[in-house]
Design a protein that fits this description.
Length: 525
């Protein structure tokens, strides 16, 4: 009965559907937003996705979480679906034909060899003398022809492979011409040709959102913006008033996608530009990013800033003990330990940390990452072995977001050696706040915002990005006198504003502003 009444109260405040294009686990910002808004009285359903297998659901506090199976037929590039006469005219069409022809040529060559051998060793089994004479004549022609045919098929197969690779990379002159032509013809609607895979998200989420009949849609990042905007439009056309909040996590033109091709950035930025005007409010992670978004999309109001701050450390009796980072690394309390926590990647400077190990006698490093067995992490571990420091580099998995601060506090310093990319310059990222609440001395690269804050607070040292020697220098400096840097966290109010609880109040206030009628109705009750 109490659970039913609590559900009624949340529905009275308003039904919120949050959208994210990942599996939720590992995305601490989205998890905290869903859980805290449900705790504040909103009826929250968080929709994420799985890229393989079937979906599943669970509770995150009082929020419902559902993962939807994403089907991606539209993600296949043109070269994976069609033969490109301009790119590689000799290539076979996509599909099994090239493999079939290669195997056919091998079979022909094997047959020719077997028939020649039979004429030598068992001529009587081949046939009459007249047939054997004709067979020798046929094989005299078939041998060279089959060899030439095999080479021709191999050439066409190589062209097919090259065409497929080029078609997936989309980096050539043909791809740039294709992109420019569609941008000129369609403007911000060009994404339909450049990135049609965005429709796969629409077809995965659309009906689920409609069935939930939300009062407010909270769309996280650029892919979900279009999904949320179209759902809001459908609802309004049906007579229901729905508000759309766009939560922009990064500045899309400044992203370097994993698949760095001629279509990705133009297609996704066009999609974002088309649907940004549909948002009733924009949320983002920093003032700097907010200014960029306002200028790019001509927003009438400055975006609301909700920092990627961690929860205050609290006991959760049902959550189990916090893992011991040092135990996972197999080291004692007296061993100096530098930690990196977050998504890995070359642009995040993990390789620089590994290269610095030979200059840091006795210092261990821990990479807290989503998948310690990932190929990139294995490569870093192998590199550490080559440098003679394999026993001092450790890869350990994520812990739940509410355990992160206590987990990281076992280290002696937190490292953020990220490289100079546009999105790295404009925000204090999640790990910056997590390290701060763990009261770790920081080592950060000289990206603009983080280096400025670190210098002003005195909580760490700044090194030159991609300079291994300077990184080692900064690490040595903070490890030599850690208490000097930890003292910065004693400044009154510094950590209080860097908490998710403070950010949740901002987000709750925004929801209430967008749905004032629901708030008035709740207050009257």
């Amino acid at each position: 009965m109490e659970t039913q009444e609590a559900g009624i109260e949340r529905s009275r405040r308003g039904r919120v559907v949050m959208l994210v294009d990942n599996k939720v686990e590992g995305d601490s910002r989205v998890q905290k937003a869903a859980e805290s808004m449900a705790a504040a009285g909103w009826d929250v359903t968080l929709l994420g996705l799985v890229r393989s297998g079937s979906g599943r659901s669970w509770k995150l506090g009082e929020a419902d979480v559902r993962l939807l199976p994403l089907k991606t037929p539209l993600a296949k590039r043109h070269a994976e679906r069609h033969r490109s006469l301009l790119r590689r005219p000799l290539a076979y069409p996509p599909g099994p034909l090239a493999a079939y022809r290669r195997q056919w040529a091998k079979a022909w060559r094997a047959d020719v060899a077997a028939r020649r051998a039979a004429l030598k060793v068992v001529p009587q089994a081949v046939g009459s003398p007249a047939f054997r004479k004709a067979e020798r004549a046929r094989l005299a022609v078939a041998g060279p022809v089959s060899k030439v045919m095999q080479r021709w098929i191999a050439l066409r197969s190589r062209h097919s492979t090259e065409a497929q690779k080029a078609g997936r990379r989309l980096q050539g002159p043909l791809d740039r011409t294709f992109t420019a032509a569609w941008k000129a013809a369609k403007g911000r609607r060009a994404w339909r040709r450049l990135e049609p895979a965005l429709w796969d998200y629409e077809l995965t989420y659309g009906k689920e959102i409609d069935a939930l009949k939300p009062d407010l849609i909270h769309a996280n990042d650029f892919r979900m913006l279009g999904v949320g905007a179209r759902a809001a439009v459908r609802a309004r056309a049906a007579g229901r008033q729905v508000k759309l909040v766009w939560d922009a996590h990064e500045f899309l033109p400044g992203v370097r996608p994993w698949e760095d091709n001629a279509h990705w950035i133009p297609g996704n930025t066009a999609h974002e530009s088309e649907y940004a005007p549909y948002a009733d409010a924009v949320v983002t992670v920093s003032e700097g990013l907010g200014d960029l978004l306002r200028e790019r999309h001509s927003l009438t109001e400055r975006p609301t800033v909700v920092l990627n701050a961690p929860d205050r450390p609290v006991e959760r009796p049902d959550a189990g003990p916090v893992p011991d980072l040092r135990e996972l690394c197999g080291i004692g309390l007296d061993v100096p330990l530098v930690v990196y926590s977050g998504s890995p990647g070359p642009q995040r400077g993990l390789g620089d940390m590994v290269e610095a190990l030979p200059q840091l006698d006795g210092v261990h490093m821990a990479f807290v990452v989503p998948n310690p067995a990932a190929a990139y992490i294995k490569g870093l571990l192998a590199r550490a072995e080559e440098l003679g420091a394999g026993d001092r580099l450790h890869a350990v998995p994520y812990v739940p977001h509410w355990q992160v601060v206590r987990f990281l506090s076992a280290a002696n310093a937190g490292c953020i050696p990220i490289h100079h990319w546009p999105n790295h310059e404009i925000a204090l990222i999640t790990k910056f706040f997590e390290y701060s609440h763990a009261r770790l001395p920081l080592v950060v690269s000289d990206v603009k915002t983080m280096s400025e804050v670190t210098r002003s607070t005195g909580q760490g040292e700044v090194c030159k990005a991609q300079d291994v020697s300077d990184l080692a220098r900064a690490i040595k400096q903070v490890l030599a006198d850690p208490e000097r840097y930890r003292a910065a966290y004693d400044k009154p109010g510094l950590l209080d504003t860097w908490t998710w609880e403070a950010q949740a109040e901002v987000l709750d206030g925004l929801y209430s502003h967008l749905l004032p009628d629901r708030e008035k109705a709740e207050n009257r009750r």
